[in-house]
Each structure stands twice: as structure tokens, then as C-alpha cells.
Specification:
The protein is α/β, with parallel strands linked by helices and 313 residues long. Helix content is 38%, strand content 17%. The protein starts with a strand and ends with a helix. The structure holds nicotinamide-adenine-dinucleotide (NAD) and uridine-5'-diphosphate.
Length: 313
């Protein structure tokens, strides 16, 4: 029997790549989105396909559907968007996850939560293993997202303990690739778009803070293995290659136009100083590790943005 998948946030960056993978595998996909940061264009290749359905819905409201698997990705991911309406972000994290877990319980579906490395906050332990409990500000501008994802994880494990709901919790580290929004403020898209427009690249702070960047194809492979496997998580999925933001800016600039300037903007509040996943658990439990280096992943990403900006004129 063909498996029926619900992907919340399915028209977003990661969700649309997941739609592609599941559709290519011959499964049924229901893509649910409120289009806050998602775009129909991301999934237009599947519209009209007999195994594909599109639902405009907000996960803060309950919904009844018959599905086997729920991939719960709905939530804005970039700081600019999740801080736009922080109360809505907190509602999406809590009520959205609560509603999806309620659905999973009712129809006995397995639910995968797209959690985040932000549950570690500004970490004092480096690199971060899943056992690290984090250092998160409860009242700052990132808290709606960080604490939202923390309570979402808590809900998953309480549904598992109380109702036997099958859950998978994935802690996603910074991921990039085609279909990121050009204006969503995340660092990879910002630098690429700035460089393609011939503008200076904006380093927040002195650019010495670090991140680890995972190419989207690797991430989706890890997500699918986690859903198919038997480990509930939480499991870190990310690329352990760690770069300062300055190094990233230099690599992007040198690939597009080495004459461009790097300029400084103030560092936003609570911006984590360092971030790198320990992925031993994913290697052991899922047989997964990333295969695409930053250099390899930047190429198709830059090519996609080049085309996108040309279309926009
Ligand atoms: P995205 O913003 O492109 O996608 C989120 C999608 O959810 C969008 O299509 C948006 O319209 C939709 N959405 C938001 N609120 C909704 C609501 N209330 N109801 C229905 N749909 C709603 O972001 P993304 O990068 O694709 O992230 C997907 C998931 O992965 C998010 O849960 C995010 O927290 C998590 N994550 C992503 C990263 C990353 O680096 N990309 C890192 C850590 C965690
Ligand atoms: N950043 C930057 N310039 C930009 C956008 C972001 O220096 O134009 C920095 C940001 O301050 C952070 C890092 O890049 O230290 C990653 O930012 P992003 O918003 O992509 O993700 P997150 O902070 O959630 O990891």
C-alpha cells in the first residue's frame, strides 16, 4: 500500500525538498502550509499530480486527516521571520505541535518534529552532543523560537510516554540550498544575494562567531532515515564542518566577485557564538553522515539564486 504523508510547512525551503523526495519515491504527499514563508512555486512541479494534495491551513488550528506519517516542519526558521511576530511563533511551536501530535495519536501516525540546534542556545559545550541541555535565554528576542522548539520536544516525549505515540525528534543545524528565500535574512542567502547584486557583504559583529552548514540534500536524507528508523531521538543532523561567519563571507565573495567589501553591522542580541553538531549518534543509529562539503554545496545554491534574481529582474 502506498504510504500517505502529511508535510506541514511543505511549501517552505526544507519541506519542498522533502515533498520532492517522497513524491519521487512513489509515496502520497499532503502538503500543508499557511504560506507565511513558503511559496507555491516551490512545489509547483507536483500540483495536479494524482499522489499530491495541497492544503492551505494554519497548524495553530486543529485538522482531521487520514495519514500514516506526519513530518512536522511548519514554523518560520529564519530569525527575521520568527521575530516578525514572536507571539505567533510561540503559538505555532506549541499549538502547532500539540495539534499535530493530537492528530498523530488519533490516527496512529508516526510524527517527526523538525527541532533545531537552537535548543542548545548559546552553548557552553562545544561541539554539542544531544545530551547537552543547552543555555537558552527565556526572555530574549530568540526565545520565542528556542523555547518554542524546546516545549515542542517536551510535548513529543510526553505524548510518547502518555499515549504511546510514535515520535522522531530531529535537531537540525544550519541548512542551506536552493529555495531559501532571498530576503529571509539567513546568512548563506544574505551573502549570496548581496554578492550577486554587487553589494557589500554584511558581517554581524566581528564575524568570528561560528556555524556549521549542511547542504539540503544531506539534511533530507538524514530526515528520511530518522523517520524510517527505530530511534526516537533527539538526534543531531548537521554538517560538523565549522566555519566562522567571516570565512563563509570570504568564500561566497571569492566565488562571485572577489572585489566586494565586507562591512560590519551590530551583532544581534543572544546571537550564539559557536555552533557545531556532534553527529556520532546519527552515524551509529542511522548510518548517516553528510557527503556534501561547503564548497560543493555553494555551487548549486549560487546557481539557483543567480537564476532566481535574473527572473525577478
Ligand atoms: P521555512 O520558513 O522555509 O519553512 C517553514 C514553512 O512553514 C513555510 O512554508 C511556512 O509558510 C510554514 N509555516 C509557518 N508557520 C506556519 C503555520 N502556523 N501553519 C502552517 N504553516 C506554517 O523554513 P525551513 O528552513 O524550511 O524550516 C523548516 C523547519 O525546519 C522549521 O520547523 C525549522 O524550525 C526547522 N529548522 C530549519 C533549519 C534550517 O537551517 N533550515 C534549522 C533548524 C531547524
Ligand atoms: N549573519 C551575518 N550577516 C548576515 C546574516 C547573518 O553575519 O547578513 C550572522 C548571524 O549574526 C549569525 C550567523 O550569521 O551569527 C547565522 O545567522 P542565521 O540567521 O543564518 O542563523 P542562526 O543565527 O539562526 O544560526
Amino acid at each position: 500500500m502506498v504510504r500517505r504523508n502529511l508535510i506541514t510547512g511543505g511549501a517552505g525551503f526544507l519541506g519542498s525538498h522533502l515533498c520532492d523526495r517522497l513524491m519521487q519515491a512513489g509515496e502520497e504527499v499532503i502538503c500543508l502550509d499557511n504560506y507565511f514563508t513558503g511559496r507555491k512555486d516551490n512545489i509547483r512541479q507536483w500540483i495536479g499530480h494524482p499522489r499530491f494534495e495541497l492544503i492551505r491551513h494554519d497548524v495553530t488550528e486543529p485538522i482531521r486527516l487520514e495519514v500514516d506519517r506526519i513530518w512536522h516542519l511548519a514554523c518560520p526558521a529564519s530569525p527575521v521571520h520568527y521575530q516578525f511576530n514572536p507571539i505567533k511563533t510561540a503559538k505555532t511551536s506549541f499549538l502547532g505541535t500539540y495539534n499535530m501530535l493530537g492528530l498523530a495519536r488519533r490516527v496512529k501516525a508516526r510524527l517527526l518534529l523538525a527541532s533545531t540546534s537552537e535548543v542548545y542556545g548559546d552553548p557552553e559545550v562545544h561541539p554539542q552532543p544531544e545530551s547537552y541541555r543547552g543555555c537558552v535565554n527565556t526572555i530574549g528576542i530568540r526565545s520565542c523560537y528556542d523555547e518554542g522548539k524546546r516545549i515542542a520536544e517536551t510535548l513529543c516525549f510526553d505524548y510518547q510516554r502518555m499515549h504511546g505515540t510514535e515520535i522522531r525528534v530531529m535537531r537540525i543545524f544550519n541548512t542551506y540550498g536552493p529555495r531559501m528565500l532571498p530576503d529571509d535574512g539567513r546568512v548563506v542567502s544574505n551573502f549570496i544575494v548581496q554578492a550577486l547584486r554587487g553589494e557589500p557583504l554584511t558581517l554581524y559583529g566581528d564575524g568570528s562567531q561560528t556555524r556549521s552548514f549542511c547542504y539540503v540534500d544531506d539534511l533530507i536524507e538524514g530526515m528520511i532515515r530518522l523517520m524510517n528508523g527505530s530511534h526516537a531521538g533527539p538526534i543531531n543532523i548537521g554538517n560538523p564542518g565549522e566555519f566562522t561567519i567571516r570565512q563563509l563571507a570570504e568564500r561566497v565573495r571569492d566565488r562571485i566577485d572577489p572585489s566586494l567589501e565586507l562591512i560590519h553591522h551590530p551583532l544581534p542580541q543572544d546571537d550564539p557564538l559557536q555552533r557545531q553538531p556532534l553527529i556520532d549518534l546519527a552515524r551509529r543509529e542511522l548510518g548517516w553522515e553528510p557527503t556534501v562539503t561547503l564548497e560543493q554545496g555553494l555551487e548549486p545554491t549560487i546557481a539557483w539564486f543567480r537564476e532566481r534574481l535574473a527572473e525577478d529582474g
